[in-house]
């Protein structure tokens, strides 16, 4: 990183902030309902003077959260679900709220200079991702961090909503999704007589069965769908060897495959699928996208899971209104 240039960019950003008032002496922060405001988060408190309109989201789940809250994303980091472009499951929001979005490095190594060049008015990420960069990010723009990601995705949406002044929208979006989940789940349970649902993921390591505290597990719980004993616990995932394939059994088995660069996940999947223990499970298997079932930890991904469930059981697709 060219430190002199970054220093100049930070100085310019601070100058813009200092000049953020009208000639009449009225603070620019007065624009937007409820601003200025102070947001409590994992790293302490952050003052946000005016409603943010340019957000840099350094974790993929916050890209989704920003857009669901009708706010433009101008910067993101490349990671599994985002690699040079915004993912398709975001639909029209990619152009409506992501037309200016640019990659600002990788999730592991965000480029501070690129972030500063975008002149964001909010940076959002997770402490578990970027705790060490908090002071540097805060020098660029007000920065808010959740404690972690994954199972806390609904609370993370609510946290960002506080920073954006969109608390009501967050609750409407979450409630609309939860109602749709119950509707789809009720239809499946009525038609298929309360089936058990298993979620299996082939990765570049031990095969995983996803439990109630995983993203897909939360969606299934919201839908009121039963889980097999191996997955009906308040954990994230159970790693199984080929000898424990039977632990994956259920009335319906949803399978994803992580697309690692070396093809190790595909190799593991092939070994499982040729194992005699897999044969009685095979007729119940439904292949689904790893991107939405595992990586898209947000409302948009949850909606896709509901749609996949509805299609599998031939019940009406979810209708989500807010």
Please tell me about this protein's structure.
- It is built from 12 helices and 12 strands.
- Helix 2 crosses helix 7, helix 7 (about 155-165) runs antiparallel to helix 8 and helix 8 runs parallel beside helix 12.
- The radius of gyration is 22 Å and the shape is globular.
- It folds into 2 domains: about 5-165, Nitrogenase molybdenum iron protein domain (Rossmann fold); about 175-315, Nitrogenase molybdenum iron protein domain (Rossmann fold), CATH 3.40.50.
- Strand 4, helix 3 (about 95) and strand 5 (about 100-105) form a beta-alpha-beta unit.
- About 40% of the residues lie in helices and about 15% in strands.
- It has about 325 residues and is of the alpha/beta class.
| Strand numbers in spatial order across the main sheet | 5-4-3-6-7
Gyration radius, rounded: 22 Å
Instruction: State the name of the first-level CATH class of the largest domain.
Output: Alpha Beta
**CATH topological fold name of the largest domain:** Rossmann fold
H/E element string? HEEEHEHEHEHHEHHEEHEEHEHH
Structural class: alpha/beta
The low-pLDDT segments are 1-31
- With helices defined by DSSP (H or I, 4 residues minimum), what is the helix count? 12
Total number of strands: 12
Largest β sheet strand count, sense and barrel closure: 5 strands, parallel
Rough shape?
Answer: globular
Please state the second-level CATH architecture of the largest domain: 3-Layer(aba) Sandwich
